[in-house]
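Input record (one chain):
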Amino acid sequence: MQQSSMSTQAMPRVSAEASVGNVRRRNIPYECADIDRQTIAGMDLSLLQQHCQIESDRFFRGQPHDTRFAYELFRRALVERCEAAWEMLFYQYRALVESWVRRSSAFSSTGESSDYFVGAVFARFWQAITPERFASFPTLGSLLHYLQMCASCVVIDCARAQSWAEVIPEALTRGFDGMIDAPDEEAIDRVSREEFWHSINALLAGDAERCVIYHSFIMGRKPGEIYEMRRDLFESVTEVYNVKRNILGRLSRNRELRRMAGMSAS
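The corresponding structure, as predicted from the sequence alone:
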């Protein structure tokens, strides 16, 4: 089978118009046990997707089902890096991923919608399971378990990032035109803010990170708003989210910054 030349690092974009619902189902009798592995490996992608949907429906109805079709879809998406297979995979499991996101104990504290996280979950999954690692997941269950772990981690990472953002003292994030009673207090406050932001700026790498920091913490904008404003810097809302998460993780580990923010350096 010919392997796609698509990069293993860049996750393919999923068309907003595409949907597995657009694929017409055929009346396929339940004779999956008679289909050998070689036949499944050579099966037309649209027919493979139809089998995946049918077997998924049977699973949720508590009926006998065959996981080999879904596993083959994962294999084509992750090993061959087949863009069409990835798109089908995304829509096949999008609702399931969203349900995992909503069940996360950290979800309510993020203040984000479940849709916001779905793309980030699939992006992490795509980046983590390279063609070389795929053999470490010998069953459909192991793949879905890892996808569920990605959902949990993405939500928790977001909650942690927001927790770090909240500990930045308000005095350091408000504008320089704030009114302070005593002139000497105003001077000290101004120096503290300038020193704090100078330290942050020294830890940032490039325009994208500076854009995210400025619009997130000075202007109070969410990743979706930042993406709409700066499509020249970001390819997706997920990329804005990832940049923000990486920045906050780096800042939270910096001892000097933690000291300036009045936090423990440990």
